[in-house]
Amino acid sequence: MTPEIFAPGIVSLETNFECCRAMPPDAKEFFFVRSTDIGEKIFRMIEESDGWTLPEQINYTDKAFQYTPFISPLGDKMLFMAGDSKPKAGSASSPPEIWILTKNGKDWGTPTLIGTSIGGAQPFYITMARNGTLYFSCVDRNGIYKSEFKDDKYSTAEKLPDE
After folding, report:
1. CA distance 134 to 123
2. pTM
3. Is residue 89 pLDDT above 60, yes or no?
4. pLDDT tens digit sequence for 101-119
5. What's the Cα-to-Cα distance from 138 to each of 55, 57, 78, 148, 159, rounded to whole Å?
6. What are phi and psi of 22, to 5 degrees?
7. Out of 66, 96, 129, 160, which could bridge 81 as a Cys pair, Cβ 3.0 to 4.6 Å?
8. What is the DSSP letter of 161?
């Protein structure tokens, strides 16, 4: 029960800004965000019989910034944010967009755009409950919001009580 650095010398390097990690329930993949010369990108490592692969940049979109990957509790969906610029509070220019992928066997499918905003909110740090409901904070406002999946689309974001 002693904490250890994950993949020392490969991840969590002093020379790189890395954040926003995600791992499916089977713990066979590891996703994280690393700053590059052209923006924040999502990287993936896979656990194989002889250890973890080296980080590989994955390009699910052509957007300059890709961040906050999240794997659903069942491990069958991945959410991430992408945009042409970093999200900023009070800025409507290039707000981040939510993308979702579904896992087919060992492979992740083609990403589908959920949207730039849900009911005017600019979501960030998205999570998904087992029933598919999204929970997130917002770039442009305080609080935690939720959006339910109904009739093949996500509902307008609803702010949760401050408690």
Report:
1. 10
2. 0.84
3. no
4. 999 988 899 888 887 667 6
5. 29, 26, 19, 16, 10
6. -150, 145
7. 96
8. P
